[in-house]
Amino acid sequence: MKGAGVVTATDFLERFLAGDRLALARAISAVEDEADGYRDFLREIYGRAGKAYLVGITGPPGAGKSTLVSHLAERYAAAGRDVGVVAVDPTSPFTGGALLGDRIRMNELAGNERIFIRSMATRGGPGGLAKATGEVALTMDAFGLDLVLIETVGVGQSELDVANSADTTVVVVVPESGDAVQAMKAGLMEIADVLVVNKADREGAEQMARELRVTLELKPEDGWRPPVVMSVATEGRGVDEILEAVAVHRSHLEKSNGLTTRRRARVRRQLEELLEYEFKCVCAAAPAYENLLELLTAEVQQGLLTPYEASARLFKEVSREI
Amino acid sequence: MKGAGVVTATDFLERFLAGDRLALARAISAVEDEADGYRDFLREIYGRAGKAYLVGITGPPGAGKSTLVSHLAERYAAAGRDVGVVAVDPTSPFTGGALLGDRIRMNELAGNERIFIRSMATRGGPGGLAKATGEVALTMDAFGLDLVLIETVGVGQSELDVANSADTTVVVVVPESGDAVQAMKAGLMEIADVLVVNKADREGAEQMARELRVTLELKPEDGWRPPVVMSVATEGRGVDEILEAVAVHRSHLEKSNGLTTRRRARVRRQLEELLEYEFKCVCAAAPAYENLLELLTAEVQQGLLTPYEASARLFKEVSREI
Asked: Residues of A numbered 261-320 whose beta carbons fall under 8 angstroms of chain B's beta carbons: which are they?
């Protein structure tokens, strides 16, 4: 367990609340790794959170999300805001293994003292991706960052859940082979508050934007029709328009009470995740659990038990510990 | 709850075991929807399963997985095998919303009486994607299909887990902008038993195959080095080579006891999923749960409680019901 115990040091909380960036880095590691004392730490800082605005950036691999995120982060920073970036996209250059060009941009960003980047190195720790991402964002929020950008790849159940738990969700697509159709099928349209057609200098971009607008008109009217913004991320084109669209959506949410509703849904989901996590911890801590699981696995494989009988016995055993 | 009660009809099991395809279709719906009596049904058929071979086909959206799957299914069927196809890829034409060309191919397949296609229409039901997919594959297996092809999009945590629970996992990539790098970063290389470079008539295919081979040489030697196969799915090229590679891997697993090891890991994972599912059911059934969850959500949002205090109270309440 990396960083275990760090957050329990007596002056740690003090340093964190005083704005010590090293303390923030350590706190995030502790939270991500579920190191000793991390829950007490989160409990302590929880009251400070709630001021940051959370923006999710999602879309298929190769859509240019990371490049957009880095531009967005820079513009916000240039406007005097402190920005956190959480990359939960396994294909993001933020999470290592980047193409050379990407990595150079990332390094530039890393030199900006208003920008704090963190990639989710693991697949979310024992508590799962959504829980870990939420807690890292919370830590950045409580630290005092004004804005947290969460980059996730928009394919996959857990990843969509993460994207969907932001205050504003930006969906990025590119004008390529059936990409709009793919994105729509993958459930991206449903969660989009702002749609970005990136690589808009490519053929088919205008047509794609038109198609998306038509599709969005079919969306049930709930007071917000997601705007479609064109961008060329590599040249920084369209970045201001995206910022503007996010700002308009934010103000719409604030006026319509939508922000409260979204955040309530987020809290509810968080409670359910924590409950499940609590149960997993009880299982893992039950003395007989591991041996029984191995034994039952063997019996199921030998055809002596069905998995349903086996899991019922496992549940009974664990129940004793609760 | 769609199909509720169908599987509990007195002659249903009989018809299913007699090879009635309509009964298989109904059984799958009941399993997917967790309809009344589905667990008893699974318990009944469990002893019949274990004969089918499970092949996972995974890779990024647009890699041509569905086209390959349909060719593979046809070749197996032509060789006299009964084949099941489970599509858990939200971008797959099997799951509806397909491009026209895709849909035509699908319809052709649907006319083949040796091929049984099922897409996971929902996102996996309350029990989650992995649980539902595993149970649908089990149902096909117990019905007597020889082979089950599971198509999943290879991005996203749950989706990778699904792919990784097959006997042989085929990873499909295409020679496009950094696709190999993306795939590697997304954890696809780790789970690949067979690698396919599809759209091999495009520029860069040979180079990509070479790069993949070099990368695979770095893999720790565990007695199996994944072969890299070139294909052009739309023309059916390379399909026989993929079948051959799967057959060689299967025979390797059977000789090396690897199949038993993989299936044991699958059973173990299944038991853990069922345990978690059991817990969720207990929660949902607890009389005070929903009201308490709403109340605690509101208190957390008002800053009266931290989520950690709230979930502890929720857990205590649920514990009483266990």
From this structure: 263-264, 267-268, 270-272, 274-276, 278-280, 283, 293-294, 296-298, 300-301, 303, 306-312, 314-315, 318-319
